[in-house]
Design goal:
183 residues; mainly alpha; 8 helices; single chain; two-stranded antiparallel sheet; Rna Polymerase Sigma Factor, Chain: A; 2 domains; Arc Repressor Mutant, subunit A; globular
């Protein structure tokens, strides 16, 4: 995602709905993708994206250009997705027995048969991301799927750049161990 022009942000801060629409149109795709990679379900990602844009709208006047708008929006998206994930985990523990009784298998759907190769690859990526803790998952998504630099990730998550490196290293080690176990 390219950064939003300062003039557009200033107009949106002043209440120009057309400018806010421009911000939405420029950022909606990446917000959804970040959310989807963290929460892993499209319906949840849509919910997170709605939350993100409500937060951006409500807090736009507090954006003072101390970071890029892109970094600020990433921060809101990642935080909203991580918060949603925590909420989902709490709900999941309550639904655990029900899902177990259904014997849910993500690679097979009774009404669609086997998933396509692309869907199967996506399921494998999601399965690997599931093996990571939320903090590791966030840095992997931002680095490898969204292409952010280490410094941009540090700014987005409001953590030290060495923490970014550490989380990525641990995540990569975990993923390598998992891939080694699949052979």
């Amino acid at each position: 995602m390219q950064d939003i022009a300062k003039e557009i942000v200033i107009k949106a801060q002043a209440g120009d709905t057309g400018s806010f629409r421009s911000i939405y149109e420029e950022t909606a795709g990446f917000v959804y993708n970040v959310a989807l990679r963290i929460v892993k379900r499209s319906q949840d990602a849509e919910e997170v994206a709605q939350e993100v844009f409500l937060n951006i709208y409500r807090n736009l006047k507090s954006f003072h250009f101390q970071s890029s708008f892109k970094t600020w929006a990433y921060r809101i998206a990642v935080n909203a997705a991580l918060n949603h994930l925590k909420k989902m985990k709490r709900e999941e523990s309550r639904r655990g027995e029900f899902n177990e009784e259904l014997n849910y298998n993500p690679v097979f759907s009774a009404d669609k048969g086997l998933l396509s190769d692309k869907q199967e690859q996506e399921a494998q990526v999601n399965s690997l991301l599931d093996a990571l803790n939320p903090e590791q998952r966030a840095v992997v998504v931002l680095r490898n799927l969204e292409g952010l630099s280490y410094q941009e990730i540090a700014d987005t998550l409001e953590i030290n750049i060495n923490t970014v490196r550490s989380r990525l290293k641990r995540a990569r080690e975990r993923l390598i161990a998992l891939k080694g176990g699949q052979r």
